[in-house]
């Protein structure tokens, strides 16, 4: 029972820290462009100004 006195506040503080990190990510715009990465991975990179390397 003595360990619960330490574990409960630690668990609550870690949960609060995770919530603060999530809210910071929302506020800083981390979730603004969800489709951009999926389109960039499909891009060939053959645009102007980019050099394409072939083997």
Features of this protein?
elongated; 0% strand; 55 residues; 2 helices; mainly alpha
Description:
One of its GO terms (biological process) is nitrogen fixation. One of its GO terms (cellular component) is plasma membrane. It is found in: Cell membrane. Helix content is 60%, strand content 0%. The protein is an all-alpha fold. The chain starts with a helix and ends in a 13-residue tail after the last helix.
The rounded Rg comes to 22 Å
Shape: elongated
Largest sheet: none
Q: How many β-strands, per DSSP? A: 0
Low-confidence stretches: none
- Mean pLDDT across all amino acids: 85
Quote the distance from N terminus to C terminus.
65 Å
Q: H/E series, N to C? A: HH
Proportion in β-strands: under 5%
Secondary-structure content class: mainly alpha
Helix residue percentage: 55-70%
Tell me the domain tally: 1
User: What is the number of helices?
Assistant: 2
Fold blueprint:
Layout: H1 2-27, H2 36-42
In brief:
This protein has two helices and no strands.
């Amino acid at each position: 029972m003595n360990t619960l006195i330490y574990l409960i506040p630690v668990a609550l503080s870690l949960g609060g820290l995770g919530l603060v990190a999530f809210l910071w990510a929302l506020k800083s715009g981390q979730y603004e462009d969800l489709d951009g990465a999926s389109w960039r991975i499909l891009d060939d990179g053959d645009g102007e100004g980019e050099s394409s390397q072939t083997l």
